[in-house]
Amino acid sequence: xITITDLRKIYRMGSVEVNALDGVTLYIDKGEFLGIxxxxxxxxxxxLHMLGLLDHPTSxxxxxxxxxxxxxxxxxxxxxxLYRLGYVFxxxxxxxxxxxxxxxxxxxxxxxxxxxxxxxxDSHGILQKIGLCDxxxxxxxxxSGGQQQRVSIARAMVNKPxxxxxxxxxxxxxxxxxxxxxxxxREINEDMKQTIVMVSHEDWHKEYFHRIIQLKDGKVVNT
Length: 223
Ligand SMILES: Nc1ncnc2c1ncn2[C@@H]1O[C@H](COP(=O)(O)OP(=O)(O)O)[C@@H](O)[C@H]1O
Ligand SMILES: [Mg+2]
Known about the structure:
By secondary structure, this protein is an alpha/beta fold. The protein has six helices and ten strands. It has helices at residues 44-51, 74-84, 100-109, 116-130, 145-157, 175-191; strands at residues 2-13, 16-28, 33-37, 59-64, 67-68, 85-88, 163-167, 195-199, 211-216, 219-221. The chain has a six-stranded mixed β-sheet. Residues 11, 13, 18, 20, 38, 40-46 line the site of adenosine-5'-diphosphate.
């Protein structure tokens, strides 16, 4: 599903160079729930950004489902992200002035192959899955952190992406809400055969992952 070969990312700040990714080679299987762990600064977010086409590596290759994604034009990348990838961030990143339903519908509205009826149906379906139908007309600030993160998962899933990327989605949640979010990921992974790549810093999250890779100084190390 995702083949990553000798991926490198060098950040240059003045005369200083940071090897944020220092030659990562990795294969991620379809339907896998992969955990990425490692100390702060080890390159986890950088790797996720490269795989999610949110940033461009300095060198290396990424092939997703047979597509050499780094060879795509900016427009093609945008379309690839919109149609095939979903994102969940640590800080939820919901639009504050939009309701829960509107936030969830947003990625579907950006596509030109969905009519209003379909969008309404898909958004409603996914809200049901996360158990927040009764909050559909609320604003994000009227929800708890855990509820907001579930809404952001619904938003990431509304277009039924091939791959879901999550960067420390439980970082701002207590253990009960973290478990709710992880259970939801597990359900999505099992029911929808969803490929999930999740960055985590909590040891107990490991019980959820099919496989774990550990980064250290921009390299994959054996766990
Ligand atoms: N935009 C950037 N500019 C310069 N350096 C960066 C940038 N983003 C990350 N880095 C550096 O790259 C390294 C890896 O960062 P990051 O991928 O955010 O690590 P993690 O997510 O594992 O904490 C760190 O040394 C960090 O300081
Ligand atoms: Mg990070």
